[in-house]
């Protein structure tokens, strides 16, 4: 498994008590597979993603990324793990206005200490993979919403992560463009061999998922679409 959450519990302060965001959550995501996380607003989807990204430490349980258990790691060690092993696609692309699509990706490689030539080659390879090689020199204002999201996805893959975490990538897109982005994520998961977690509110975009995890009140139930349907009957 490239991403494993085991018995994860996460609570937040709530007045004089604690609010449980995640309750004994266990999830395994193998490399080369896509797990879709669904559930109503406030159910714990974003908390699950934050814990998986090592941005928030759970109260209990363990997070293992590509064989490394994060319990007890320092802040600096976690930052280094995210840089090397985890790609994060945020809900809004937040691209730098002054940089071209190619340069958005090359910045990530520069942070990682790669040579300019290698960085440029990798950036162009990924832009080609997401269908944007012809737009490599365009800046964000010259790209459509769907194209900006594809740059966002390519940027998250720039440092060859083993885990890809995606937060509501279709929220600002119409259904057709949203379906295209999810289809792209599914294809790249197979191509790049990442363990991908996709948080989405749109159940119409689940056809390519290998596993579906439903979160309700911080508790998780996972399986294939057929298994979850049978469990509800």
UniProtKB/TrEMBL annotation:
Highest taxon above the source species: Bacteria
Keywords, ordered alphabetically: ATP-binding, Nucleotide-binding
GO cellular component: plasma membrane
Keyword Membrane: no
InterPro entries assigned to the protein according to its UniProt record, in alphabetical order: AAA+_ATPase, ABC_transporter-like_ATP-bd, ABC_transporter-like_CS, ABC_transpr_LolD-like, P-loop_NTPase
GO MF annotation terms: ATP binding; ATP hydrolysis activity; transmembrane transporter activity
Protein name from the UniProt record: Putative ABC transport system ATP-binding protein
Organism, as annotated: Lentzea flaviverrucosa
């Amino acid at each position: 498994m490239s991403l494993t959450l085991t018995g994860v519990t996460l609570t937040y302060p709530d007045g004089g008590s604690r609010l449980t965001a995640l309750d004994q959550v266990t999830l395994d995501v193998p490399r080369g597979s896509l797990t879709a996380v669904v559930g109503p607003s406030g159910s714990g989807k974003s908390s699950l993603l934050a814990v998986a990204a090592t941005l928030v430490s759970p109260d209990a349980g363990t997070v293992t990324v590509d064989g490394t258990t994060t319990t007890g790691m320092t802040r600096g060690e976690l930052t280094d793990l995210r840089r090397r092993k985890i790609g994060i696609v945020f809900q809004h692309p937040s691209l730098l206005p002054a940089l071209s699509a190619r340069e958005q990706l090359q910045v990530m490689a520069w942070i990682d200490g790669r040579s300019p030539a290698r960085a440029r080659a990798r950036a162009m390879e990924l832009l080609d993979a997401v269908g944007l090689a012809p737009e490599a020199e365009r800046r964000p204002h010259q790209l459509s919403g769907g194209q900006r999201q594809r740059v966002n996805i390519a940027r998250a893959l720039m440092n060859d992560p083993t885990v890809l975490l995606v937060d509501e990538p279709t929220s600002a897109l119409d259904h057709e463009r949203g379906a295209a982005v999810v289809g792209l994520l599914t294809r790249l998961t197979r191509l790049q061999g990442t363990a991908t977690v996709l948080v989405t509110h749109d159940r119409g975009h689940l056809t390519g998922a290998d596993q579906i995890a439903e979160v309700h009140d911080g508790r998780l139930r996972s399986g294939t679409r057929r298994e979850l349907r049978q469990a509800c009957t």
